[in-house]
Design brief:
380 residues, Helix Hairpins, HSP40/DNAj peptide-binding domain, 3 domains, 23% helix, elongated
């Protein structure tokens, strides 16, 4: 089967402008690129090759004129067989724009994969240091009040002996593995497409230079291990899973980059009395059955101290009262949650003679509740 007309391939008219050609190709490239397509991979590769060939010809004014005059024979041999002729940069900017949002995740566009962003070596650019994690466990009272916690954090710091270069006396030379670029590349073919992956040079770690003689103090690493003491400010209202960020308290950066951060993960211990649900606190509080019957006032503990709770007469077991504003501080700083008190009625296990006599007298005058089975007794 012969080649399809290039204008038909891109779905455009013969009089289409350069912008219309780019727009059509952008849409089809997103649809058929082997790394992002949702269609059959082999079919997509063939279609991607076809639309790429059509675009390469029609976007170039000279090639387009030859094609319009002589058809496919006029541009035969000028296409790179599935890969663009990367040595021809006349449309570099156009292609960068077209591939820039295909989702490769390499800088601004796919060209960062092939040319390191065309801005020189990328491996030796300043890089932010690694961030660290520190887990801290506190009790509920300290989560309520907030606190300052001292932490000893083991980190890497730049070696003072070699000023972070890893070279004795700071004497370095160009890395022979990457030629001073700080990065190496590997080419891989996928069907009709060619991809170049770029990574930091494993020998120089992306610096582009290596030590003439390794620093004796850090063994050429450029960094030494050190334990730093950091004061962590834990604000009121934190809960398990709260993450606190301390900027610049992580490992040092590379090639003059800024240090990483320290992330403090808070864990709040369970309390023997209080149960927590977000900003709210729950507690079971026992009272004697006479207070539940006659009513009264109870002093109950709260996470922040104590509170007076009024018990109305006739209170039943498992009745829940709310103490507004007696819960945990909200992390947003907008007030506090509530405390909920569930009443548990205590039944005395032992009675003295006087108590028993009084209860027996009370039972004789207490109205009896007719239960379900009373209806089936004889005479009912």
């Amino acid at each position: 089967m012969g080649k399809r007309d290039y204008y038909e391939v891109l779905g455009i008219d013969k009089g289409a402008s350069s912008d219309e050609i780019k727009k059509a190709y952008r849409k089809l490239a997103r649809q058929y690129h082997p790394d992002v397509t949702q269609e059959d991979r082999e079919v997509a590769e063939e279609k991607f090759k076809e639309v790429s060939e059509a675009y390469e010809v029609l976007v170039d004014d000279d090639k387009r004129k030859m094609y319009d005059a002589y058809g496919h024979s006029g541009v035969s041999g000028q296409f790179s067989g599935g890969n663009f002729d990367w040595s021809d940069f006349s449309h570099f900017g156009d292609l960068r724009d077209i591939f820039g949002d295909l989702g490769f995740g390499f800088g601004n566009s796919i060209f960062d994969m092939f040319f390191g962003g065309m801005g020189g070596p990328q491996g030796n650019r300043p890089m932010k240091g690694e961030s660290l994690r520190y887990d801290v466990e506190i009790d509920l009272e300290n989560a309520y009040k907030g606190m300052t916690q001292e932490a000893r954090i083991p980190t890497w710091v730049n070696c003072e002996e070699c000023n972070g270069t890893g070279a004795q006396g700071g004497q370095t030379m160009t890395c022979p593995t990457c030629g001073g670029k700080g990065q190496i590349s590997a080419t891989q073919r996928r069907g009709y497409s060619q991809f170049v992956s770029i990574q930091a040079c494993p020998r120089c770690g992306g610096r582009g230079t290596i030590a003439e003689k390794a620093c004796a103090k850090c063994d050429g690493r450029g960094q030494v291990r050190k334990t730093s003491t950091i004061m962590i400010e834990i604000p009121p209202g934190v809960d398990t899973g709260t993450r606190l960020r301390i900027p610049g308290a992580g490992n040092p950066g590379k090639n003059g980059g800024p240090p990483g951060d320290l992330f403090v993960i808070v864990h709040v211990k369970e309390h023997e009395l209080f149960k927590r649900d977000g900003p709210n606190i729950y507690i079971d509080w026992p009272i004697c059955f006479t207070d539940a019957t006659l009513g009264g006032e109870e002093e109950v503990p709260t996470i922040g101290g104590k509170a007076q709770l009024k018990i109305p007469g006739g209170t039943q077991g498992d009745t829940v009262f709310r103490l507004r504003g007696s819960g945990m501080p909200r992390p947003s700083g907008r007030g506090k949650g509530d405390q909920f008190v569930r009443i548990k009625i205590k039944v005395p296990e032992r009675l003295n003679k006087e108590q028993r006599d009084l209860l027996e007298k009370f039972s004789k005058v207490e109205p009896r509740h007719k239960g379900f089975f009373d209806r089936f007794k004889p005479g009912h």
